[in-house]
Specification:
By secondary structure, this protein is α+β, with helices and mostly antiparallel strands. It is 26% helix and 22% strand. A 5-stranded mixed beta sheet has the order 2-9-5-4-3. Helix 4 packs across helix 7 and helix 6 packs across helix 7. The longest helix has 17 residues. The chain binds a DNA duplex through loops.
Length: 270
DNA sequence: TGTGTCACCTGAGCGC
DNA sequence: TGCGCTCAGGTGACAC
């Protein structure tokens, strides 16, 4: 499931090929994938050129000519790729064709992913991006900033790490890995967190490792080139219930925090 | 206003 | 072998 490192991996792979490309044709196979509506996309997109591919949190931001911005959110199973993904062609939701004959496929098994097209001056408000918190990779996150953002919050630290209005880009896998790196249990009350320095460093460190490994493939994620990520080979806790902790050898425990399957080491995390 | 819960959606895994 | 159930999870909508 794509989180910040997986989205960054897609951008790194797609940007060189797509920058400067001009849209020629759009084919939408699932109307519910597109916002505000298919008609606007079909009418506005042809003839527009891609100026830049960037990211904020888990959103892919495609800046276009003509005062337009296309935003893609992969949600759970979305894939953006220049070629159809083997074995997933029946889940293709949209196909973009460029004037140079290249194509861009949006594949999404569960139909959770979204493609937005809005005028550049208000796309952030229309996509929900305006509410996003700090991006730990693009903007960095200091202990002071993190502490201030958590100051008035209640609930578990994992719940707050998953809250995109506090820190943008963290999902279930990296939330567990960050808690492990910081040595805190995911169910710890957020106001009982003492070491914000270690927590903020863990956020950046875990996400950077994920990016360096081209993301984490648990079940569905593949990069734009159709290749799986490698970060699943380096996870400390996520998906390792009953296995030995890499640090102390204790068995990794699975529980449920913030409504999500949650893994931690009962010895290393307090 | 902040927090918790549910729906969306499909495939994998499991028990019978 | 086939059926039905449960689980997985990011986000928006809704209830409290």
């Amino acid at each position: 499931m794509p989180e910040l490192p997986e989205v960054q991996t897609v951008i790194n792979e797609l940007a060189p090929a797509l920058k400067g490309a001009k849209f020629w044709k759009v084919e939408v196979k699932n109307e519910n994938t597109v916002r505000p509506d298919v008609g606007f996309l079909m009418h506005e997109l042809p003839g527009k050129r891609i100026e830049a591919l960037t990211r904020k949190g888990k959103y892919i931001v495609i800046s276009l000519t003509g005062n337009l911005t296309m935003v893609v959110h992969l949600r759970m199973t979305g894939i953006l790729s220049p070629k159809p993904i083997k074995g997933k062609t029946k889940h293709i939701r949209a196909i973009f064709t460029f004037t140079n004959a290249k194509k861009l496929y949006f594949t999404d098994m569960r139909k959770f992913g979204k493609i937005y097209l809005f005028r550049t001056d208000h796309y952030e408000a229309m996509t929900g991006m305006a509410k996003l918190g700090v991006d730990p990779i693009e903007e960095g996150i200091s202990a002071e900033v993190l502490k201030a953002r958590l100051a008035s919050k209640k609930g578990t630290i994992k719940g707050k790490l998953l809250d995109q209005t506090i820190v943008a880009g963290i999902g279930n896998i990296y939330a567990d890995e960050i808690c492990f790196c910081a040595g805190v249990r995911p169910e710890t009350e957020v106001q009982k967190i003492k070491n914000h320095q270690k927590l903020s460093k863990s956020i950046v460190q875990c996400l950077e490792i994920g990016i360096a490994n081209n993301g984490t493939t648990i079940s569905d994620f593949v990069g734009a080139n159709g290749q799986s990520g490698r970060n699943q080979d380096y996870l400390n806790v996520y998906g390792r219930e009953g296995e030995a902790c890499h640090v102390c050898g204790s068995k990794i425990v699975k529980t449920r925090v913030a409504g999500r399957g949650t893994y931690y080491c009962p010895t290393c995390q307090h």
